[in-house]
Fold this sequence. Notes:
Oligomer: single chain
Amino acid sequence: MSFGQGKWVKLGQKGAGPGARSSHAIAIVGQKVYAFGGELKPRVPVDNKIHVFDLQELTWSVAEATGDVPPPRVGVTMAAVDGTIYVFGGRDSTHKELNELYSFDTSTNKWTLLSSGDSGPPHRSYHSTTANDRYVYIFGGCGVDGRLNDLWAFDTAEQKWVKFASPGDNLKGRGGPGLVVASGKIWVVYGFAGMEVDDVHCFDPVHEEWAQVETKGEKPTARSVFSTAGIGKYIFVYGGEIDPSDLGHLGAGKFSGEFYVLDTETLMWKRWDDGSDSSDHPGPRGWCAFGAGKRDGKEGLLVYGGNSPSNDRLDDIFFFTPCLDASGK
């Protein structure tokens, strides 16, 4: 597969949706987008409902959830394996870091608390999560005593946690990194480690080895809290914070609206012409909910909401589809 340009489409929304928010999460199962958590005002969780967006009908609904419904939170992550969504961590209304792992069965709308306390990763928020067809991976984030650099996996078949080898001090603890499974490895891309950083690391789960990789090409500037997705051997990176606010999480930093792709085989970055002058382009933003999924049978990246340069939370939805060649076909 050889990618060229790509195209953003702004999706219409019918009915009453969740509203503007940032620091929330989504997971895509089939043609449904499941959204959870987030904030409208900084550090104040909005709600704990599961909002469902139909990618075909473009309609919002609220799942009538049962079971162990998690409390509201920000800085939370989600990932789906088959028809089950896994939700980990975040920060509650008292600013306490959390470490519960919940599952949400999309066929029954039932929540189940799978782990808490000392049985899994330590408490954290603004970490990153990704998944393959069996494992849900958790990396980094803001812990009780500082930023973390640990990698964990929840085995959905065995229903147990696995902690991987430490990457050492070479991979600094960070919040808001990209985390992607591609080419049989788990990739950690950029993030905030006291400053925005631009390093790339990968973990080989077969040999249980970490490596820092030197990338080349049209390399993005250092950034964090960007939207990312893995499709095939490619890692897609859109937007993010490239200069933090002096007010920390209470303010809006400087955001990017650029789109980059990393080929994990050649380690070559490429900046894409993604129609930044189009009204369908999401523009500069960060702290979005995002996920890889399919629309009209084509794989791509969905971005929902986030924070804007004016520090206003957003409620729009965009879908980016990579094209197969530079002509856009």
